[in-house]
Amino acid sequence: MTNTHLKIFACIIAFIIINEDVLSQPQIYQAGFSNDERQDVIQTISKLEPLFQRDPTKEMAIQLADAFLYIKSYKKAISYYEYALEIDPLNERETENYFSALFEYGDLVLASTVSKEFYIKFKKIHLKSKMDSLENLSKSKPIVVENYTSMNSKHNEYGLYSIFADYRLLNSDYSPDKKNTVTASKYMNPYAVSLKSEDADTTKFYTLLDNEKYLYTITHYDPVERKVYITQNTSIRFNLNNILNSTSTMKLFTAKINSFFQLDALVEFKYNSPNYSVGHACVSKDGQVLFFVSDMPGGFGGSDIYRCMKMEDGSWGAPINLGKDVNSSGDEMFPYLNPKGNMLYFSSTGNSIFGGLDLNKSTRSRANVFGKATNLGVPFNSNKDDFALIFTDELGEEGFFSSSRTLGLGGVDIYRFSYEKKTPLASKKTDANNNVRISTTIKANNQENNDQKNTDVEEDFVDFSDKRKK
User: Are residues 429 and 396 in the same domain?
Assistant: First the structure.
């Protein structure tokens, strides 16, 4: 959830208290809303929409629009704001809400128009400044990005974390079966995969955890202690929108891993709690600082990034919030410290400019203090969710990130990027791993259904998922 959202939810939804014809005053939104609050909004929508159909009014249209914006159903929010707009001009709060719905949905042309009208009418520049920031980031130096198709399928894959030799850790909700094919799984599990192969036919998947109870993902391998950091989620399905704001609770575990990709027993993180979520861990290269996310009480709203220092006895010290320069009233997720240890990368809805989760970075200013977060711009960010960035070299010039952008193979795909390429990766060409190479300068999308029109892609993606070997 963006900073703009914090301002726009002054009124969220009217609750039906006495009967269907009596509406209460709207509630004041508080940052870091709970699952109960979300469910209340959804239930109220189901009651309010039939009333609106029988007797539509501007008041009800605004209440429904605010409610749909609250649960990130942007298209429906836009339709109700525009219905209200046909009756009477929108006030300051309503216009700001309408802008946010357009912006998050990806209709940036109309959002820009609304931001200018807002500036003229209400003499406030923050919406226009957001559009100007988006334009400046869109003009940044192009980065070569390619869909890493030999690791992607028609379902969800994310993360490609270095482990040892030529192996990486991959999270996927596909499961290799006994016949060496890949079948859809109800749960997401981590795998070790070999990148050293002549083609996708020889890619090997090693199952690290095989379960039918929780959603398990790995976000870090610590080469100092040869252990993996595992997030356990009680949710049965991978869903970025509900990964924290749902009935599920995340817990953090560690496990030693040997060269045969066998895990020791899972060890629970000492700061796990049944009352809040803890997960998405990473550790500094020297093994002395642990970063993780949590929505524990006392944060800035949603999920925040915390750090723990390693004590002399080898245990982790008390969690310390990284502060307001990194954390926002939205959700911060998937922290990653670069190999040099001077830059923290993470995804955020509170510092989102393009929509959904945006990749951000924060420079270490001293000791373990990090400065103001800055958005990475395009092509790292899109109007979908972009997250889990890591580097594969010491200089921080190439690596991987994950994204749910429209033109991928499945719901979430892994993308490979490079800052330094003498020539763009050629379209209509595959590398040794059968990865379809594309030269992308992904622009902010004007509309959700116009993603392909606004992306420079010359070759259809090829699904190699059926060729995977166990």
Answer: yes
Mean pLDDT of 409-432: 61
Whether this prediction's pTM lies above 0.85 is answered by no
Q: Per the structure block, which two tokens stand in for 166?
A: 């030529």
Residue 313, by phi and psi: left (phi above 0), alpha (psi -120 to 50) or beta? alpha
Q: In the numeric block, which tokens belong to residue 308?
A: 């723990």
Show the CA angle centred on residue 322, arms to residues 312 and 6, nearest 5°: 155
Q: Which of 84, 107, 138 is at the close of a domain? A: 138
Q: Pick from 76, 105, 138: which residue ends a domain?
A: 138
Distance CA 113, CA 127 (A): 10
pLDDT at 141: 56
| More confident: 349 or 195 | 349
Written as one letter, the residue type at 113 is T
**In three state form, how does the secondary structure of 109-135 look?**
HHHHHHHHHHHHHHCCCHHHHHHHHHH
For the chain, how many structural domains are there in total?
2
Both 164 and 258 in one domain: the answer is yes
CA–CA distance, 295 with 297 (Å, rounded to integer): 6
Sheet of strand 320-321: strand arrangement:
278-283, 289-294, 304-309, 320-321
User: What are the tens digits of pLDDT across the range 304-357?
Assistant: 999 999 988 889 999 999 999 999 988 999 999 998 888 999 999 888 888 788
Name the residue range of residue 97's domain: 3-138
